[in-house]
Amino acid sequence: MGLKIGIFTDSYRPYTSGVVRSIETFSEELQAQGHEVYIFAPDYPNCNKEKESRVFRFSSIPAPTNHDFTLAVPFSIRLRSTIKKLNLDIIHVHSPFLLGRLGARYAKKLNLPLVFTFHTLYDQYVHYIPIGQNITKEITKKYCADFCNHCDLVIVPTEIIGKHLQSWGVRSAIKAIPTGIKIQDFRTNEKDWVHRKFGINPSCKLLISVGRLGKEKNFAFIIRSFKSIAESIPESRLVLVGNGPEKNALENLAREIGVLEKIIFTGTLSREEIIKAYNSAHIFIFASVTETQGLVVGEAKAAGLPIVAVKAFGISEMVEDGIDGFLTDLDMNQFIEKINLLLTDESLRHSLSQNALRNAVKISAQSCTNKLINCYNEVINRKNGYHAQKVRDSW
Predict the structure, then answer these.
(1) pTM score of the predicted model
(2) Do residues 302 and 225 share a domain?
């Protein structure tokens, strides 16, 4: 019999992010295997609620630092009765704040198992707070550790993040399950979409990076590196897919150092367009040092792209150095050297590309979802066993 799963999240479509993509991917796979998934999420001005099934929206307000993102008001007089009526087996939260905390509260009230996926190194995002960033970073670590310790299971995308949480004082059970990739979705024969859409000469070699244009993604490092690459390989172009608060600053930087005409800022693309963009490129490059997994790296591999990335946190487990890509220190010379090597050595680039395709299968959506279901069942059985033991002990 299928499970009934309640997912509480502070971000959901139409907002786009790695967290949203993770929830969508796992939900689709869970439902395909006969489980029922109910999602509790913020409302957005452009939501199409008529097409939503099993999604419960909370009144929300725009976030002060990102107006595309909304902050849910974590209150509903109907929530307790709704959860009881759904007869949930487990609650899975995807944030330690707002709706995540609300989900945790109701899991405790109704004695339901609580699972938390730790998607984000929240302490690395304190630059969005104007004052007291060092103090805020320590408070954030303690807050997250405390939240984790009230959960029956904490899921992390990579083993290194699990060890990181333990260093913060997390004592709850931790399981590494990456967000899976729908491998078949990233295979397409349309290899020149970016060239055609943005008027790029077909002979140009494309470097692509995908992500929110925020400080934590380190796109300035990529743009500065590209200046040297463009000087040595004039036919190279840089494609930055995404939008965010740093877009204007990044465009200004590119203009100041003289490479703006060789950089394509695509803005927000649809899922189908992003897949076409991956397939149009020659190399995927990534410089973020805050990733718990780096879902876009897995997507790029599924599209057959070799990777050049800065070795930090979850990325170190997403790239097999020298096999399907290269990992570098946060050193511009190393980063540039590996990109130039792949741009100039077609045989090597092809070899790493084939390895990327093969390795992407290791994180297929079906495989990762099967691991998640096993975790759900273990947590439910453990919780039920503990409850039964308490009942027996009270006789």
Answers:
(1) 0.79
(2) yes
